[in-house]
Amino acid sequence: MTGTHSDHVICYTTDINFLLPSIFSAKSVRQFVAKDKINIHIILFHDKTDDYDFKGISAKLAEDNIFLQLTTPDFYKNVDTSIFQKGHVPIASVGRFFLCDLLPEQYQHIIYLDGDTWVNQDPSALIFKQWPENKVAFIDDYSSFEGRLRPAKFQKYWDKIGKAKLDNYFNAGIFASRRDTWKQISEEAFQFLVEHPEKCQYHDQSALNAVVKERRVQLSLKWNFQTNYKFLYLDKDISPVIYHFTRSPKAWEGAAFPWSEQYHQILPVKQEFAQFDLPLKSIDDARVQQINTDRHKQTMVFKNWLMRKIIRFFTGIDRYEKTSFKL
């Protein structure tokens, strides 16, 4: 491997179906962070090595110091994969638990992004932060705010994983941590997932929320700006750095609200990698039009600043933002 000698790394874990979206996200990082500043690793969990032109994909990505790592059968021999089969959980979804086994030793600071993300502004404040030992930075999941309005919908699940509060439930799709800290936390979370699969409704995210506890640093929603925040037009009040497409359709599937702008931003990267014929889900224009019509009707009330202010207050979003660690 070539590239920068920085001890910081941005990484993704994916299966073949999310490889191209992960590439989209990695390329969006490069709009703001030069290739000589930090390496990006995409770790692909895939059983075959000859069904796609991985050499060609790797060579093209390496031009931007984006490195594609294919896991080998040797990796699986120490992992009980039965849990994934029983729960219909793709191993890539918990691949983040094994980052410390898979990433080169030079990396001591890990920034993880899910493949369904898009960098909207310079993320340098997050990716070059020197995080303290025994702390990992997460951003709250939308459900933690919805739960303040409808606690009965979530409390039974939260009780199973030891969440006493109605808030402080984080989304696992974006995080930052020291390598040694992540090794400890990820081992604990994987053990919890193996021992209590019935409690882990959202798999790796559930397990992490069960074990992290006071070791969390709370970051602003702008670092993991999920689809529901876009529905609420909170980008008028909070300037998103990283978008997270947490609901379908994803931004690459079609120019559907609220991600139509990001769909058009993704198109050039999609065309750049079209020669490799990687799988990518899409929806037809008629479906896009119907989604746009329905969602604009459902969310137009939140264009009003007063309505947004009321929502932010009663869900606790304002308090959350005020108490979040400032980067």
Secondary structure layout:
Blueprint: E1 8-14, H1 19-29, E2 39-44, H2 54-62, E3 66-70, H3 73-76, H4 82-87, H5 99-102, E4 109-113, E5 117-119, H6 124-127, E6 136-140, H7 142-149, H8 151-160, E7 170-178, H9 179-195, H10 204-211, E8 216-218, E9 225-226, H11 227-231, E10 242-244, H12 260-272, H13 285-299, H14 305-315, H15 317-323
Parallel strand pairs: 1-2, 1-4, 2-3, 6-8, 9-10
Antiparallel strand pairs: 4-7, 5-10, 6-7
Helix pairs in contact: 7-8, 9-10
Task: Provide a short characterization of the protein structure.
This protein has 327 residues and is an alpha/beta fold.
**Helices and strands: which structural class?**
alpha/beta
Query: What's the CATH H-level homologous superfamily?
Result: Spore Coat Polysaccharide Biosynthesis Protein SpsA, Chain A
Specify Rg, calculated over alpha carbons: 19 Å
Order of helix and strand elements from N to C terminus:
EHEHEHHHEEHEHHEHHEEHEHHHH
**Distance between the first and last residues' Cα:** 31 Å
Strand order of the largest sheet: 3-2-1-4-7-6-8
Instruction: Please bin the fraction of helical residues.
Output: 40-55%
* Overall tally of structural domains: 1
CATH fold label: Spore Coat Polysaccharide Biosynthesis Protein SpsA, Chain A
Number of helices: 15
Return residue spans where pLDDT drops below 50 for at least 5 consecutive residues: none
- Total beta strand runs: 10
- In terms of DSSP E residues, the strand content is 5-15%
Write down the overall mean pLDDT: 92
Oligomer: single chain
The coarse silhouette is globular
CATH architecture: Alpha-Beta Complex
